[in-house]
Amino acid sequence: MKLAAFIATTALTATTAFADGHVDRTGWPESFTVGTASQGGTYFAYGSGWANLVAEELGLTGGGEVTGGPMQNMALVHTGDAQFGMTTMGPAAESIAGTNPIAPGLQMTNACAMFPMYQTPFSVTALASSGIESIADIPDGARIGFGPAGSTSDTYFPRMMDELGVNYERRNGGWSDLGGQLQDGLLDVIAFAAGVPVPAVSQLEVQTDVNIIEFTEEEQAQIMAAFPVSEFDIAADTYTTLESDARSVSMWNFAIANCDLPASFVNAVVDVVMSDNERMVNIHRAARSTLPENWTKNAGVLPWHPGAAQWFVENAGADIPADQIHGN
């Protein structure tokens, strides 16, 4: 059953109407923040980009904020310390179930789905000089950088390495910092879970020769059987290093909103982001997947914000069950 059967709000028109003030802005904040992740990662580039776009289009003050990534963003948005954030479906499901390590036992049900972002591929990078060209080549006790503590990478990639029988020393840090450590020989491998191209990897390619390591078919199948991920190929044109598509796995990302934000505000934000994909792709190439039809990738994990659900019902033909919309 569609949202329209349950709520009646003023229909929102084109984005220009928002800027012109033709929409009821009752309850709208004067400023907003978007919880992203560490600098050098895709979340920060993508999130800061859409935050700036929304602020400009809606005549508000807003921007991206450096955070610990998807787990922390769920907590910040749930409590209202950030109006918006970005998360991955695995950490989102854990947070709603009350198993987020930031606040064990707290079911973070006040963070609502806003719009689909892109898939996060899991990929491994090493210096070409290391001789590491496959997962099997990773030496016993390798120093692996898994990203910021509590990030999607840090939550799932160590488990994946365990599943594949890799023995390692676990290191954490921001992506830019870990890229520098890899280049300086302080790390053997970086295990990235981030939208591609990952800024830190692109920067490494400019400065040195790297190997972007794909999973074998057997490794891919083994990981897909053990974790909430799907098959994914990193396109050859993503990095100058790649000569062909690289076999990977991925997890979907969604933008989230505090569920108590006004429906008209969230609807306006979603319209700015979803109505012109070219602008989003100019912010980050990962936004090629930021398309209305990908509303289905939520798959009942997160409750929908009413304002977001209304946008997808009216503009993408979404058939969102009433029990998956917050407040119903």
From TrEMBL:
Gene3D superfamilies: Periplasmic binding protein-like II. InterPro entries: TRAP_TAXI. It comes from the Bacteria. Keywords: Signal. It holds the Pfam family NMT1_3. Residues 1-19 form the signal peptide. This is TRAP transporter solute receptor, TAXI family. It comes from Yoonia litorea. The lineage of its organism: Bacteria, Pseudomonadati, Pseudomonadota, Alphaproteobacteria, Rhodobacterales.
